[in-house]
Write a structure and sequence with these properties.
Elements: E1 13-17, H1 24-29, E2 36-41, H2 43-54, E3 61-64, H3 70-82, E4 85-92, H4 94-107, E5 110-115, E6 127-132, E7 135-140, E8 146-150, H5 151-154, H6 159-170, H7 172-186, H8 192-207, H9 217-237, H10 246-257, H11 264-280, H12 286-295, H13 302-305, H14 309-318, H15 335-344
Parallel strand pairs: 1-8, 2-3, 2-4, 4-5, 5-8
Antiparallel strand pairs: 6-7
Helix pairs in contact: 3-4, 6-9, 6-11, 7-8, 7-11, 8-9, 10-11, 10-14, 11-12, 14-15
Bound molecules: zinc ion.
Pfam families: Fe-ADH_2
GO molecular function: glycerol-1-phosphate dehydrogenase (NAD+) activity; glycerol-1-phosphate dehydrogenase (NADP+) activity; metal ion binding
Binding site for Zn(2+): 168, 248, 264
Length: 348
């Protein structure tokens, strides 16, 4: 009996380009939503672009968050209920988007993603990452109903946020390899289409490396396009597998043992160099990953991350404990193997 089924949830409107923030209300109109919007933002995005949103939605209620936390999610849920909101608009970098994503899940309403930094693929995906104590929770929710990515605004974000977005995309290389491996060894469901799309996204980004430079708005365009396409790959797969493998486990582990040191994208980029080494050895493609990262100005070493070698090794040897996701790390790599990988690849 044929009993397969799938449910692909994608953003319906993706608006990207110079000045498109001013078309936000038009993009929202096209969604035929009911009820009032509610703005979720944080202080600096609010300062930069809050009024441009308010100008388009008369009397819109809002909250400004200092940090992403479960408390913030509760705050948004309560305030949006009080305002009788029909949907949420998240304006900001990672924080407001992660929080709005989880809050909209709780409120059973949709949200619109308006990123002010192209720093990770969470701006498009259905996954939310919220820190709690010394750990981070990755929670499954729905992707945004629409994404409005104004490249003029994104190009003004600190450059390291853009290179973090690039590195998050480059890590798709190893994420897809881990996914294929898990499919072969653990019968994890694999989507050829999502895997190919994710890999192609990374290849296209690397192919455009020459146009990814500070002060060039086209950089924001290229990176956002890649983040959208990576998010679509996750939507098709119905999981973060196409964009999250062992390099992400490594980064999540760093978040636990060395919180707040480096950006998510930068950590997964460095992780990807080492997990690629585990996949294919000394003559493998880890040099390509390292070179792509360094061309774009993303860190390739522990020093550049601002994290000491010992912490890198601890994270690498314990990353498999983060969650039940089979990767090249298997049931854990030995300290010797971790040191060898980190040393040969020049990470430490
Ligand atoms: Zn990521």
């Amino acid at each position: 009996m044929f009993d397969k089924s799938t449910w692909i949830k994608l953003p319906r409107n993706v608006l990207q380009g110079h000045g498109v923030l001013d078309d936000l209300s038009a993009a929202v109109d096209e969604l035929y939503l009911s009820g009032d919007p509610f703005l979720v933002t944080s202080p600096s995005p609010d300062r930069i672009a809050g009024d441009r949103v308010r100008d388009q939605f008369d009397g819109i209620a809002s909250v400004s968050l200092d940090r992403a936390s479960f408390e913030s999610v509760e705050r948004v849920v309560d305030a949006a209920r009080e305002a009788d909101a029909g949907y949420l608009i998240a304006l900001g970098g990672g924080k407001p988007i992660d929080v709005a994503k989880m809050a909209s899940d709780r409120l059973d309403c949709g949200f619109i993603s308006v990123p002010t930094a192209a720093s990770h693929d969470g701006i498009v995906s259905g996954r939310s990452s919220i820190p709690e104590g010394d750990t981070r929770h990755s929670v499954a929710a729905d992707p945004p109903l629409a994404v409005v990515a104004d490249t003029e605004l994104l190009a003004e974000a600190p450059w390291e946020l853009t290179t973090a977005g690039c590195a998050d995309i480059i890590s798709n290389y190893t994420a897809v390899k881990d996914w294929e491996l898990a499919h072969r060894l653990k019968n994890v469901e694999y989507s050829e289409y999502a895997g190919a799309l994710s890999q192609m996204t990374a290849e296209m980004l690397v192919g455009s490396a020459d146009s990814i430079k500070p002060g060039l708005e086209e950089s924001a365009w290229i990176v956002t396009k890649a983040l959208v396409s990576s998010g679509v790959a996750m939507s098709i797969a119905g999981s973060s597998r196409p964009a999250s493998g062992a390099e992400h486990l490594f980064s999540h582990q760093l978040d636990r043992i060395a919180p707040g040191r480096a950006l998510h994208g930068h950590q997964v980029g460095v992780g990807s160099i080492m997990t690629e080494y585990f996949h294919s050895g000394a003559r493998g493609e880890w040099t390509d990953i390292r070179d792509a990262l360094s061309t774009m100005g993303a860190p390739t070493t522990a020093d550049e991350l601002g994290i000491d070698g010992e912490t890198i090794i601890e994270a690498l040897t314990t990353a498999h404990e983060i969650r039940d996701r089979y990767t090249i790390l298997g049931n854990g790599v030995s300290e010797e193997a971790a040191i060898e990988a980190a040393t040969i690849t020049g990470v430490i």
